[in-house]
Structures are given as structure tokens and as C-alpha cells.
Design brief:
TIM Barrel; eight-stranded parallel sheet; alpha/beta; single chain
């Protein structure tokens, strides 16, 4: 998916799924297995730079793990203080650290000190655990620890992904901390982007679920920012889905059931949050050949 999104030319960089650092330091081989871009100069095949993200609460293990990530090829490290998943929060990771500002500084500082000066270290935050007020102190602590930039999701941990989002504090943090701040959260349309831009004054934006729900959204926003060379043409879902499967090894690879499962995850998200209309007809299909046969037929009927 990072490779596919990168092929649109809209994003400046992508971020890997986080690797959780719990009871032991993660070795370099774990990063090479989990973040395949590390073997190709931290770039996808389409040329998108990828930053490695780690998550955990122990400064020493996080620092040693970050150094191993660099040894594996990482060119930038992001620390996740935003994940709201209960299992992560119960094990001293993600958004649970939002209640401990000094620990945020300690973890960022430990990672910053462990990796070479040329490797940027950033932090992903939410506004707070159960209120928005902690973001000001937490952002200050992350910057004191040495964060090169911050990404802020405009919700609390208790909200999870439920509305509303609160963009205004992101702008207030941006004006206070002296490092770039990336605005994130519910940028589902170009209109949402403009509202976020107006409320935050931000010039950097992160898309997650909206980029999957509407693959043309990131290019449209990039065009508004003057970043995209051209707006990507609207592609049929069948073309997009085939492109993802090809990037996972093709329809005939051994174990292509994983490709089918990933594809259904994308279809479900695009159905829930976007305008993909065929999930009900495809969710029980058991192989890729049948899925694409049905999808092609449905798209022809719709046309």
C-alpha cells in the first residue's frame, strides 16, 4: 500500500507500521523483515521515502532498538505516542505515555542520543488521554527531548477514532514549539483539508484512513498545496486492487490468501468511509480470480 500510494506522487514520505518494543530490544533482522523498504534505500519501488516507527515505554530498550533500526537501514525514526489500542496501552505503549510528560521527554531524548545526529527523530502524539489540554506540555517535552518534528492526531485517546476532531490546539502547538508540526485527523475531503488548514495554519498534513477510502484524495490535496505535478486520473477500483495484489506478489503467489485478506480489509474500509459500493457482493469470495471476475462484472454493470 505504501508503494501504491507513493506511485500517485502526492506524498512526501510514508511511515511504517509501528514495531512494538516491550520486554526486549528488537534486532535489526526484525526491521528488515517488517519494513521491506529498508533493503531498498528506505524507498518503495515507486520512490516514496519511508520512515520507521517504533513504540514502547522503556527508554533504554527504545534507544537500543532505534539504533538497530538504523543499522538495518532506517534513515528516520518516529516514536508513536498516539496508538489508542487497549492492548498497547496496557503494556506501557502508545497513548498511555500521554499521561506522563516527563517520560515522553526521556524516551525521545534516549532515542535521539542513541542514533547518529543525521538521523531525524520525530514523535506522533494525540491531544491527550481524556482531554485536549495535555498536548501543550507533551509537545513541549517531545521537543525538549530532541524531536525534529511532531505529528499530532486531533483527538484524545478516549475518543479513539470517534468524532469530533479538535484541530485548533494543533495550530497553537505549532506556534509554540519551534519545530514543524504535521496535522492529522479526519481529513476526508478537500473541504476538510481547507478547514484544518484555516484552523491550524499548518503547512504539513498526514493522511491515513482517508487515503485508503479515497485514493484520489491525497493527489487533490497535494495539488491544493502546489506539490503534485498533476492530478492522478480517477482509476477504477478493479485497477487499484489489481495494482495492490501485483505489489504483494501477484495473484498466483504461494499463500495468496494473505493478499485476498488484505484486499478485503481495503475494500471494507473504502466501503465504510468512502464510496466503494461492492463490498457486500465480494466479502465472502474465497479466491482472487473469482473476486476480480465479480468485480469486473459489477463495474461493467454500473458503467
Amino acid at each position: 500500500m505504501r508503494d501504491l500510494q507513493g506511485s500517485f506522487g502526492a506524498f512526501s514520505y510514508g511511515v511504517s507500521e509501528f514495531l512494538r518494543v516491550s520486554n526486549s530490544v528488537l534486532p535489526a533482522k526484525v526491521f528488515r523483515r517488517s519494513v521491506p523498504e529498508l533493503t531498498t534505500g528506505c524507498r518503495t519501488a515507486s520512490g516514496l521515502p519511508i520512515q520507521v516507527q517504533i513504540l514502547g515505554g522503556d527508554p533504554d530498550r527504545m534507544a537500543a532498538t532505534a539504533l538497530n533500526a538504523v543499522k538495518a537501514g532506517a534513515e528516520a525514526i518516529d516514536i508513536n505516542f498516539g496508538c489508542p489500542a487497549p492492548i498497547v496501552n496496557r503494556h506501557d505503549g502508545g497513548a498511555s505515555l500521554l499521561r506522563c510528560p516527563e517520560r515522553i521527554r526521556e524516551i525521545v531524548s534516549a532515542v535521539r542520543s542513541a542514533v547518529p545526529p543525521a538521523i531525524p527523530v520525530s514523535a506522533k502524539l494525540r491531544l491527550g488521554w481524556d482531554s485536549c489540554d495535555p498536548i501543550y506540555r507533551n509537545a513541549e517535552m517531545a521537543v525538549e527531548g530532541g524531536a525534529s518534528w511532531l505529528t499530532i492526531h486531533a483527538r484524545t485517546r478516549i475518543q479513539g477514532y470517534r468524532p469530533p476532531v479538535f484541530w485548533k490546539p494543533i495550530g497553537e502547538v505549532q506556534r509554540a514549539v519551534g519545530v514543524p508540526v504535521i496535522a492529522n485527523g479526519d481529513l476526508w475531503s478537500v473541504d476538510d483539508f481547507h478547514r484544518c488548514q484555516d484552523e491550524t495554519g499548518a503547512i504539513h498534513f498526514m493522511l491515513g484512513r482517508p487515503a485508503l477510502a479515497d485514493p484520489g484524495l491525497a493527489p487533490r490535496i497535494a495539488a491544493e498545496l502546489g506539490l503534485a505535478l498533476s492530478v492522478v486520473p480517477v482509476l477504477p477500483w478493479s485497477t487499484l486492487f489489481r495494482s495492490l495484489v501485483d505489489r504483494m506478489g501477484g495473484e498466483n503467489r504461494v499463500g495468496h490468501g494473505k493478499s485476498l485478506a488484505r484486499l478485503k480489509q481495503w475494500m471494507n474500509l473504502a466501503h465504510q468511509f468512502g464510496e466503494f459500493p461492492h463490498f457486500a457482493e465480494l466479502k465472502l469470495v474465497m479466491n482472487l480470480d473469482e473476486l476480480f471476475e465479480r468485480l469486473d462484472r459489477l463495474e461493467r454493470q454500473a458503467a
